[in-house]
Design goal:
Layout lengths: L1 H111 L2 H21 L2 E3 L12 E8 L8 E6 L2 E3 L2 E4 L1 E7 L17
Parallel strand pairs: 2-6
Antiparallel strand pairs: 1-4, 3-6, 4-5
Helix pairs in contact: 1-2
Length: 210
């Protein structure tokens, strides 16, 4: 009897020891889980902070780019307006002598009551103006005697004639100008049209039988 109790005692102690080891391992595992969760939370927080910093940097770069673009646009507009004023001023400066000549011609014609002086004065003004245009790259459009070209001519009337081919410009009613290939204003012209064909001899009317 005592021998049986002696044999069972070691088995019982072994089982208890095993259970204690299992419990200890479980406790260690449970102790590690909060630490692991805490580490994950810290890592996520660090990543979030990094992403927020990158986003802030991108927003700052975007704002700077928008501001630079707005400033560049303002500078461009200012320079463009300044350039336009200079161009206009330079062109007007060229026209001022024409204004002076026109004024002198009108005064001369008024004092002398001579239409010839006025005509000569305006001829001079026209010549000077065309020269200024030419110096600026502006040239008159050729019209009279030319074939009608809808790109540079604007037909405002037709003239029935057999002296020139149909479609030929016979008269310029308003001068047109171009600068390079750009049409500033098409020439207003009168265009030749062929006379109507002669009517064939009328056949005698047949009497209508009653």
């Amino acid at each position: 009897m005592d021998d049986d109790n002696t044999n069972q005692q070691p088995e019982t102690n072994g089982a208890e020891k095993h259970q204690d080891e299992v419990n200890e391992a479980q406790q260690k595992q449970e102790a590690k889980q909060p630490q692991h969760a805490q580490d994950n939370e810290q890592a996520l927080e660090a990543e979030k902070t990094e992403q927020e910093q990158k986003l802030a940097e991108l927003e700052d770069k975007y704002r700077r780019a928008v501001a630079d673009l707005a400033n560049a646009h303002k500078r461009f507009q200012k320079e463009r307006h300044g350039t336009s004023k200079l161009v206009i001023a330079a062109f007007v400066k060229k026209l001022l002598p024409l204004v002076d000549n026109m004024s002198h011609s009108l005064k001369s014609a008024e004092n002398s009551h001579d239409a010839t002086a006025l005509i000569e004065g305006f001829d001079l003004i026209e010549s000077q103006m065309l020269q200024i245009f030419s110096d600026s790259g502006v040239e008159p459009i050729k019209s009279v005697g030319e074939r009608f070209d809808p790109e540079v001519h604007h037909a405002v009337a037709t003239e029935i004639t057999d002296e020139v081919a149909p479609g030929t410009v016979t008269e310029e009613l308003g001068r047109g100008f171009v600068i390079g290939d750009f049409v500033i204003r098409p020439a207003q012209v009168k265009v030749a049209a062929a006379p109507p064909a002669e009517n064939e001899e009328k056949q005698p009317e047949k009497e209508t039988e009653e």
